[in-house]
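Hey, I was hoping to borrow your eyes for a little while. I'm sending you its amino acid sequence along with the backbone structure tokens. Take your time with it, there's no hurry, and the full record follows here.
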Amino acid sequence: MAHRAGPHFLQIPGPSNVPGRILRAIERPTIDHRGPEFQALAKEVLEKIKPIFKTKNPVIIFPASGTGAWEAALVNTLSPGDKVLMVETGQFSTLWVELATRIGLKPEVIEGDWRRGVDPAEVEARLSKDKGHEIKAVCCVHNETSTGVTSRIPEVRKAIDAAGHPALFMVDTISGLASADLRHDEWGIDVTISGSQKGLMLPPGISFNAVSDKALEASKSSKMTKSYWEWSSQIGQNPTGNFPYTPNTNLLYGLNEACDMLMDEGLENVFARHERHAEATRRAVRQWGLEIQCEDTREYSPVLTGVVMPEGHDADAVRKVILDKFDMSLGAGLGKVKGRMFRIGHLGDFNDLMLCGTLSGCEMGLRMAGVPIQTGGVQAALDYLSGNA
């Protein structure tokens, strides 16, 4: 067919759907990024983003994807050959390790099975052995987008403190920010890394580093080569509403609107909404008789749910049926879990009826693809939603 009625259902775990309110903000005419109108916008946005990270410290904005924010965090605080402790929780933690290796750092990786988050006890044990404090940073992913596992970041902070170790604590919350609770200051994070295209409900193209005083102090002695990612240039110019290069002006219009939307709803309400939709989704998956990729109930993600296929069934084939029949995109399994699982995104600008449509498409598609499931998954979700309004 040349035309398909109705909207496309984008239910991948980011980029998420961009609400009309943000699209209308982005489509405003471009302004002079060196003029007073932009300077007022920039100063407003730089202040509004701080409560989203729950910090009073600077949040540095780059025109980049989350990968850029990974690199910026590392090159501003470390020096060539520095050892960093990184924890494997899924595909994105693995990619961060690869990036660290390429830029001349020496990652030591705590391996994982991609079904659990960071084990605070393992982090404490490894740091306790590092008597010479050779490890300069601990890096972990808050919400692992490839698996649907949310690590217990406050417990990791406590583990670092229990070991009495001075390492910097860096946390990737690219898919967690504005969907799952994250407290930069309270949780003692030194660099929080995020992007625009998930809970912030924007297109890709903005990345962030929220930085602690300790991280800023470390940046003064960092010897990594950097230019575009240099924090000091940003921190020097941002207070006047300026950037050291051409900023992504129209996306900043959208970011300003996104911050307003989140604060209007209230962050705690946003988090509760995400938790509610995640639980409804998990109830549907269990009713179908399928496994959830995350095995620790304490680490269930409010952002997405990973659905494991029975032996002999290809998750990508299921996704293709659902796309062809119902015009709905689901997240693919990545890396080690490619073909074994698919991911249902339930994040951003998302409500009950959107979830019901999503789960209906999944249930019908699973049956059409020949996956042996029990019916009633959608009804299980409906029962939960109606009983927990």
